[in-house]
Amino acid sequence: MDRWKWVAVRAYGPAAFALLVAVVSVVVLSRWQATPLLAGFVVVGRWVPLLALAATLWLVAMPTYRLAQWQRGQGLDCPRCGGPLGHERIGHQRMGGAYRRCYACGDNVNHRHYE
Question: Mind listing the pLDDT tens digit for each residue in 40-97?
């Protein structure tokens, strides 16, 4: 697979998973309504697909914003390959602290390289 196709997979993979959770939860909830034992959980379970869809929207919006910023030259880029960087993650202090993962090469970039 081309390296730029991996950018899309790494950026939008979590959103696809959240959408899958929403679809599966709708199917499960429709089957729970048929059984009287689990019918009480349906009231609470109706929030699961809505929350999963909200997460999907967020997980699509943020990488799209980051990729648009990177394409305009205003976003953060990887010092190794020049690809766009993802969200900042908390790292162990002994390993250098906060870091971002490159969408293109998958390398972890320490915060000292993009601040």
Answer: 777 788 899 999 999 999 999 999 998 898 889 898 888 888 888 888 888 877 777 8
Q: What is the pTM of this model?
A: 0.75
Length of the chain: 115
pLDDT value of residue 19: 96
Residue 48 lies in domain: 1-75
| CA distances from residue 77 to 4, 51, 114, 115 in whole angstroms, order as listed | 14, 31, 8, 11
Contact predicate 85/76, CB 8 Å:
yes
In contact, 86 and 100? CB cutoff 8 Å:
yes
Total domain count, the chain: 2
Question: Pseudo-torsion of CA 3, 74, 96, 6, nearest 10°?
Answer: -10
Distance between CA 8 and CA 67 in Å, rounded? 10
Looking at the fold, whether 70 and 37 belong to one and the same domain comes out as yes
Encoding tokens for residue 66? 């980051």
Within this chain, do residues 91 and 81 fall inside the same structural domain, yes or no? yes
